[in-house]
Design brief:
The chain is an alpha/beta fold and 346 residues long. The protein has helices at residues 14-21, 25-32, 40-52, 91-106, 120-130, 144-153, 176-189, 205-220, 238-249, 263-275, 309-324; strands spanning 70-76, 82-84, 110-116, 134-138, 157-160, 171-174, 195-199, 229-231, 257-260, 285-289, 303-307, 333-336, 338-341.
Length: 346
C-alpha cells in the first residue's frame, strides 16, 4: 500500500498501480483513460488495484499526461546518478534535449536531466526516487541490461541518438547511412578514388552505421574498399581525430579524401594534415559529420553532413507522450534525414 501523507492525500502513482497489477504503465494509462483495446480481465484487475491503493479519482478519465507525468533524460557518465542542467549536456545530446523540452513544455510536463553511470541499480533507484514515468535515453552507447530491465519493468522509454539493435525498442536517430552516401557521392563526383574513414569508437552504434554506410556507398560507386578505417582514441574529439589521422598517414597508402565521424574529429584531422604538408582540399578532401556551428569557421571551412538534431528530440518527446497516453506500443526506428553542406574543404 502507498504512503499517506499529512492530510490524507494519496501519493499513489500509476507506476504503483502497474507494479501491483503486474502490467505496464501504458496499460494502466489505457485503462484509466477508457481506451477500448484492453483485455477485460486486465481492465477489471487494474480498477481493483486503483480502488485498493486509493488512487485519486480526479485523475481518472479525461486526464491528460501533462498534469500527471514526469519525464527524464538519461546521459552516460562515470560515477553515481546526479541531476544536472542543460549546460552540462553538450553537442547532439543538448540539441535533442532542447527539442524534446519544447514539446514537453507545451504540454506542461515536468522534466529532469540526469547524468549517470547507467546501470540497472542506478536507473531503478532514479526512477523510484523521482517518480519518473517516462525516459529518453541519450547517446550512441546503451547498456543492454538496462534496456532489457526497462522493457520488463514496463517503463516507457525512447533511445535518442542511435538504434538499440538487436533489442526491439523505439529509437530516434539520424539517417547516417544516407549521410555517408551523400558524402561518398560528392567525393566521387569530384574524382576522388581513395576514400577513407576516421571513425568514432566502434562500441557506438552510430560508428557502426557510418562504417556500414561507407562500405555500401563505395560499392554503389564502384570504388575500392581497402578497410581504410581508423578510430579515434578520444571519443569524437579533436584530439582523437588528430591522433587517428597521423596513424592513417603513417600507413603510407594512397589517400585523396577522408570522411570524419564528427566535425570535432575533422578539426584535429585538419591540423594533422597541415603538419604533414597535405593541402586541403588540393591533396586531400575532408568531410565531417554533424554540422556544428564551428564547422564553418574551420580553416578551410568544413564540408559536413548535417541533420536537424532538435527534430530528433521533438520526435522522441511526441512518441513518449503517445506511449504515456496509452496509445499503441509498437516499436520502430525513426530516422531524421541528413543533408550535405558543401564548403571549402572539398
Amino acid at each position: 500500500m502507498s504512503e499517506q501523507p499529512v492530510g490524507g492525500k494519496s501519493t499513489t502513482t500509476i507506476r504503483d498501480i502497474a507494479r501491483v497489477a503486474n502490467v505496464s504503465i501504458s496499460t494502466v494509462s489505457r485503462v484509466l483513460n477508457g481506451h477500448p483495446h484492453v483485455d477485460e480481465d486486465t481492465r477489471q484487475s487494474v480498477w481493483k488495484i486503483v480502488s485498493e491503493l486509493d488512487y485519486p479519482m480526479s485523475r481518472v478519465r479525461g486526464q491528460t499526461v501533462r498534469n500527471t507525468h514526469t519525464m527524464a533524460f538519461l546521459s552516460n557518465m562515470v560515477g553515481d546518478v546526479q541531476e544536472t542542467v542543460d549546460v552540462n549536456v553538450s553537442g547532439i545530446e543538448l540539441a535533442i534535449v532542447n527539442g524534446a523540452q519544447s514539446i514537453f513544455h507545451q504540454q506542461q510536463i515536468s522534466t529532469h536531466i540526469f547524468k549517470s553511470n547507467i546501470t540497472v541499480e542506478n536507473i531503478d533507484k532514479l526512477i523510484r526516487a523521482n517518480n519518473i514515468d517516462g525516459l529518453i535515453y541519450l547517446g550512441g552507447i546503451y547498456n543492454r541490461d538496462v534496456l532489457r530491465w526497462m522493457l520488463d519493468d514496463g517503463t516507457p522509454f525512447i533511445t535518442a541518438g542511435a538504434h538499440a539493435y538487436p533489442l526491439n525498442v523505439t529509437s530516434v536517430m539520424a539517417n547516417y547511412i544516407q549521410g555517408m552516401e551523400f558524402a561518398v557521392k560528392h567525393l566521387a563526383d569530384l574524382g576522388h578514388q581513395r576514400i577513407c574513414l576516421v571513425n568514432g569508437p566502434y562500441t557506438t552504434n552510430t560508428s557502426q552505421e557510418k562504417y556500414q554506410g561507407l562500405r555500401l556507398s563505395l560499392s554503389m560507386h564502384n570504388l575500392p574498399f581497402d578497410d581504410y578505417q581508423v578510430t579515434g582514441d578520444n571519443w569524437f574529439g579533436s584530439e582523437g581525430g588528430y591522433i587517428a589521422t597521423l596513424r592513417l598517414l603513417a600507413q603510407s597508402r594512397p589517400i585523396d579524401a577522408i570522411i570524419y565521424a564528427d566535425d570535432g574529429m575533422a578539426l584535429g584531422g585538419l591540423k594533422a594534415l597541415r603538419e604533414a604538408g597535405r593541402k586541403v582540399p588540393d591533396d586531400v578532401a575532408v568531410i565531417g559529420f554533424h554540422n556544428y556551428e564551428y564547422a564553418k569557421f574551420a580553416d578551410p571551412a568544413l564540408t559536413t553532413i548535417g541533420f536537424d538534431m532538435q527534430m530528433m528530440g521533438r520526435l522522441a518527446a511526441q512518441r513518449l507522450i503517445a506511449l504515456m497516453n496509452g496509445e499503441r506500443n509498437d516499436h520502430y526506428v525513426m530516422t531524421v534525414p541528413t543533408t550535405l553542406i558543401v564548403r571549402d574543404s572539398t
